[in-house]
Design goal:
Radius of gyration: 30 Å
Number of strands: 0
Strand content: under 5%
Low-confidence stretches: 275-280
Order of helices and strands: HHHHHHHHHHHHHHH
Helix content: over 70%
Shape: elongated
Number of helices: 15
């Protein structure tokens, strides 16, 4: 069971690494993205070596018991070093001089981590007392081995220091970014860091209890690895949210906009772009581009049919809609949906009213300034496009039009 769980998480993590690496190769100047790739790769390697079968298989291959633990913890240290560099970059300030100082401090920090970790690995090499594999209870099996304890204590010190710094700084930066996906990702990353500190605390308390003759295996070998696993998942989620969040939002917009887009462009195919870019592609490719394109084409249709809509049609729709106690956003969506349907209907029969509408877009101006709010507004238009209220209003408009013609 542990093998399946850890290997699945490891595979998903490496897929995230590959995705971020492709983005970084396109923008090599983005140092933060490069560091995120390295740190994500460290977490992904931790998941792989946490699988007991892979752990034992690696040790059989190299002929050294528990050497996989060195690689596992080294991956954590790589993550910690990346976190320290991020901290130094984010707190460096503005200007070339500040960036130069940050680079110098980053080199010094990485050098210190490498030196400390070399001491830790040396402690493991000289202090390993037996050749028994301990993929699940390594920290409690060697509490009487000074060299291994040096290895473990230095590992926890490096890891804990980086988690504390990153967990403190991420919420501060998130507060400056408002409700963006990057801000959400930073908050989730901070939660992973603080939960990682719970793991470190459990290990340290476990060591102390073992040294005092009161071992708590449930704490060191149960609570600690569980908290570490959940923390790693949160860290990966924090790194993936800035990229995945906008795409998920774009997919949801597409799912809501597509029925309306298909309906309104079926009568006006001239406004649509060549669909060859979409054909034969993975269905989740170009989500944001497609959502933007659909919204733009719906707006093109609205501009094209405005003279086919009676100038007072929107006022009539709003008057009828207010009678059913809709809020302002719902009123705007209903009015716009009715005007759109009326314009398409009139154009289909070649009817041009004597006084056409200047516009059939009823979104609030403040909302239209926000792209996400405009998406939401059009999605609400799509939701009510076939509603009974719209049918009732259109029936009244048709009857009134017929009366005026006669």
């Amino acid at each position: 069971m542990f093998d399946v769980v850890y290997l699945c998480f490891g595979a998903a993590a490496w897929a995230l690494v590959a995705y971020k690496a492709v983005a970084w190769f396109r923008d090599r100047s983005n140092t933060d993205l490069g560091l995120a790739c390295v740190m994500t790769g460290g977490v992904a390697t931790v998941f792989l070596f946490s699988a007991p079968s892979l752990y034992r298989g690696f040790d059989r291959l190299v002929g050294v018991a528990n050497l996989a633990m060195v690689f596992l913890y080294s991956s954590v240290v790589v993550f910690a070093a990346g976190a320290l560099v991020l901290l130094l970059r984010w707190t460096a300030g503005e200007g070339d001089a500040a960036r130069t100082r940050a680079r110098a401090r980053a080199r010094a920090a990485v050098g210190a981590v490498v030196l400390l970790w070399a001491v830790a690995v040396t402690g493991f090499a000289v202090g390993r007392p037996d050749a028994v594999e301990h993929p699940r209870d390594f920290s409690t099996a060697y509490t009487d081995a000074p060299g291994v304890m040096v290895f473990l204590v230095l590992y926890l010190a490096i890891f804990g220091a980086s988690l504390a710094g990153l967990g403190t700084l991420c919420p501060r930066y998130a507060a400056r970014l408002g409700g963006s996906w990057l801000a959400r990702g930073l908050r989730v990353l901070a939660a992973g860091c603080w939960l990682g500190l719970v793991y470190c605390a459990c290990k340290v308390v476990g060591f102390v209890l073992s040294w005092t003759g009161h071992p708590a295996l449930w704490l060191s070998n149960g609570v600690a690895p569980l908290s570490a696993s959940v923390a790693a998942i949160l860290v990966l989620a924090g790194f993936s949210l800035p990229a995945a969040g906008p795409r998920v939002a774009a997919w949801r917009r597409l799912r809501r906009l597509t029925p309306l887009w298909r309906t309104v462009t079926a009568q006006t195919p001239e406004v649509t772009m060549d669909g060859s870019r979409w054909s034969g592609r993975w269905p989740f490719a170009d989500l944001e581009w497609r959502a933007n394109r659909q919204m733009a084409e719906i707006r093109d249709v609205q501009r094209g049919i405005r003279h086919h809509v009676e100038s007072d049609a929107v006022d009539i729709v709003l008057e009828r809609a207010r009678a059913v106690s809709l809020d302002d956003r719902q009123l705007a969506a209903v009015a716009e949906a009715a005007a759109l349907r009326r314009g398409l209907e009139n154009r289909a029969v070649g009817h041009v009213p004597a006084h056409g509408a200047d516009s059939v877009v009823v979104a609030d101006g403040r909302e239209a300034a926000e792209l996400s709010a405009e998406y939401e507004h059009l999605a609400m238009v799509a939701d009510v496009y076939r509603s009974p209220l719209i049918e009732t209003v259109l029936t009244e408009l048709r009857q009134r039009s017929a009366t005026l013609r006669s």
